[in-house]
Specification:
This protein is of the alpha+beta class. The protein is built from 19 helices and 19 strands.
Length: 582
């Protein structure tokens, strides 16, 4: 089924290579690397690190960066965790005793930086260029500065006005982002000299080890961060700020290269990262919806929005109760991804009545033939507040058919910049719970359950679309709608991205203090008033947001035409997202 639609932006089309990124300079950086002969991984790493420079409110070089890579020659998809671990000295008792039972802003919520390891590991294992070649666009922007967009200016300004993120309490941060004692105005240059110096230090290490070969030289630069001088500097800064890190916490850390989770929806396969992030929610929800005639319901009809939102509610309930670091938690992933389990969950949806609160978890254990360890539903108390969001995204497809998908995150407004290094120590500990029975409870050396989650779709075994978005818990709902808009309603990726969006919030938010708004669903103002009224009658707690709200995500995607080979890139006008290719 094809819907006759126009879009405000045209889809970017090409037959050679394509990049779609959360900032236009990041898209340009990825394109530059592709034009210089790099592959999708080289370009993806270049664009991802430029995002770290140009979107400091949302991402950081010392933050997180889960990555998914498809190598066409091997016909293999791998994921790189790009997510840090708590210091070994961290535990629930510490926060109960020393932080009033909170996970406060600052160095105490820090986990080891996952992004640098992820970028460099991806480049070492799957790229073709040197770190020096790939880092050049980001180095230039950090060293010479770039004009701040209105999005970045407003975020820094909001911190200045409200104290959000406690940015004024950290001289190492304000000296960079408020050099004139105020937020930079739109169009003013932002220079990050310390970050540029860090990049140059890594280049010097790589050069000094070039005789060992490209991969080993990149590994030496990576080790300089985690086992060399930079590790010592991070540990000293943590100690100075009252943090819990030892240098051994940095020395012993490494990301993991893992197989993806795979969900099947008709002729499509959707690949996500594992349950250390929320990625499987997208694949699981698609399987719940597989037997429904979505086209017959009509795009964004009340029936369609109700069904999709309720299926998401069920998957988010399973996320809340079961997803966590699989190094510490027995996650029933095979059961959760079973088609029979999906049908059992689908049977819980009443088309006339919305779940008034988050539904109970399912019983996935029997669907994978293991002893039942199901959890009883807890009585959750509403927690008012905002749904915190950060993050960005980038994806690439190259002329060889390789693809790259990554969701970097961790802005600078919750954790201080390390003196002299120009980057933070990831503040992603904000996505843990202090309940010891929770799947994502805080434990020593455990990883938080991450919201950023890149994805890729394949059609009949062939690469179809890398896609993703920022947006915290809004990521999976937005990604699901993009996928369905393209595959079920015949839209090109730009049309699909520009459609009015809806996000259910009927589950505890992933960020501390875990806002919970029972029955809530947000819709953009472009959704018809009659549809919103219909959903209200079914029991949804409806809220209408701006027509083009950044809170609904900022999608990027590249669709590969399996017959012609034409690439179509889409980029979300809700933020600074752009696509470029040829």
């Amino acid at each position: 089924m094809t819907i006759g639609l126009s879009s405000y932006r045209p889809p970017i089309m090409g037959s050679t290579h394509m990049v779609s990124s959360g900032h236009y300079l990041a898209a340009a950086a990825g394109y530059r690397i592709l034009e210089e002969g790099g592959n999708a991984v080289d370009a993806g790493v270049a664009s991802g690190i430029v995002i770290n420079v140009t979107l400091p409110h949302a991402t950081n070089f010392g933050g997180v960066a889960p990555i998914m890579i498809y190598m066409a020659e091997a016909d293999e998809v791998v994921t790189i965790s790009g997510l840090g671990r708590w210091p070994r000295a961290a535990n629930i008792e510490y926060f109960q005793k020393n932080a009033g039972g909170e996970i406060p802003l600052g160095i105490e919520r820090s986990v080891t930086p996952g992004a640098p390891d992820a970028w460099l590991t991806a480049l070492e294992k799957y790229g073709t260029m040197t770190f020096e070649q790939v880092i050049k666009p980001a180095l230039e922007l950090a060293e010479d500065g770039f004009p701040v967009s209105s999005v970045v200016s407003s975020f820094i300004g909001r911190s200045e006005e409200t104290g959000e993120g406690n940015i004024r309490g950290w001289e190492s941060t304000t000296s960079i982002f408020m050099p004139k004692g105020r937020a930079p105005k739109t169009g003013e240059a932002l220079v990050q000299s310390d970050l540029a110096k860090t990049f140059r230090r890594l280049i010097e290490v790589e050069r000094a080890n070039a005789h060992r070969g490209r991969a080993d030289a990149i590994r030496a630069a990576r080790d300089y961060i985690y086992k060399g001088d930079i590790a010592d500097e991070m540990a000293a800064f943590s100690d100075k700020m009252g943090g819990l890190f030892t240098v051994e916490d940095f020395n012993d850390f490494s990301v993991k290269i893992e197989k993806p989770v795979v969900g099947k929806f008709r002729e499509f396969e959707v690949y996500t990262c594992g349950p250390w992030c929320q990625g499987p929610v997208t694949a699981q929800t698609l399987q719940i919806l597989e037997d429904d005639d979505l086209q017959a319901m009509g795009h964004n009809s009340p029936d369609y929005m109700h069904l999709v939102s309720q299926a998401l509610n069920l998957s988010f309930a399973d996320r809340h109760y079961y997803y966590g670091d699989p190094d510490f938690v027995d996650v029933p992933m095979d059961g959760l991804m079973s088609k029979e389990y999906a049908r059992a969950r689908r049977s819980m949806i009443d088309m006339d009545k919305a779940f008034p609160e988050m539904p109970p978890p399912g019983e996935p254990w029997s669907y994978q033939g293991t002893p039942d360890k199901s959890l009883a539903a807890q009585k959750l108390t509403p927690v008012p507040g905002e749904q915190e969001q950060d993050t960005s995204y980038t994806c690439v497809v190259d002329k060889w058919g390789n693809a790259f998908s990554a969701t970097p995150s961790d802005g600078v407004f919750g954790t201080p910049i390390v003196d002299g290094l120009g980057f933070i120590i990831s503040g992603r500990g904000s996505q843990n719970w202090l309940d010891p029975d929770h799947a994502s409870s805080l434990q020593p050396w455990k990883r938080p359950r991450l919201t950023p989650n890149p994805a890729m779709a394949f059609k009949n075994g062939k690469l179809f679309m890398p896609f993703g978005t920022p947006g915290g818990d809004a990521q999976c709902p937005a990604m699901l709608q993009l996928f369905l808009n393209v595959t079920q309603f015949g839209m090109d990726p730009q049309q699909a991205i520009e459609q009015p969006r809806f996000i259910p919030w009927n589950y505890p938010n992933s960020f501390w203090p875990h806002t919970y708004l029972p029955g809530r669903m947000d819709v953009e103002g472009r959704v018809s008033g009659d549809s919103a009224a219909d959903l209200q009658k079914r029991g949804h707690d409806m809220r209408v947001v701006n027509d083009w709200s950044p809170s609904m995500g900022a999608l990027s995607g590249i669709v590969v035409d399996g017959e012609s080979g034409v690439l179509k890139g889409g980029a979300d006008p809700r933020r600074d997202t752009y696509a470029i290719g040829r």
